[in-house]
User: Fold this.
Amino acid sequence: MCLICVEYDKDRLTIKEAWNNLGEMYYSLEPDHRTEIVNKLMDEAIFGEEEIDEELWGLIFQGILM
Assistant:
């Protein structure tokens, strides 16, 4: 697992921080793991309990288009 996954799973990162970190680390991660992280964070954004604001949706859609 990568630092994003470890810290997010331990509740040390908010979903917004995780998306920001993903944007910074995107090209240094293995393609399969990038997909895994995007899917994990998308599931959390859609089905999770954390409130998602417009800024975060912008980060999410920006991440999808990478």
Summary: The radius of gyration is 11 Å. The chain has four helices and no strands. The longest helix spans residues 31-47. The mean pLDDT is 86.
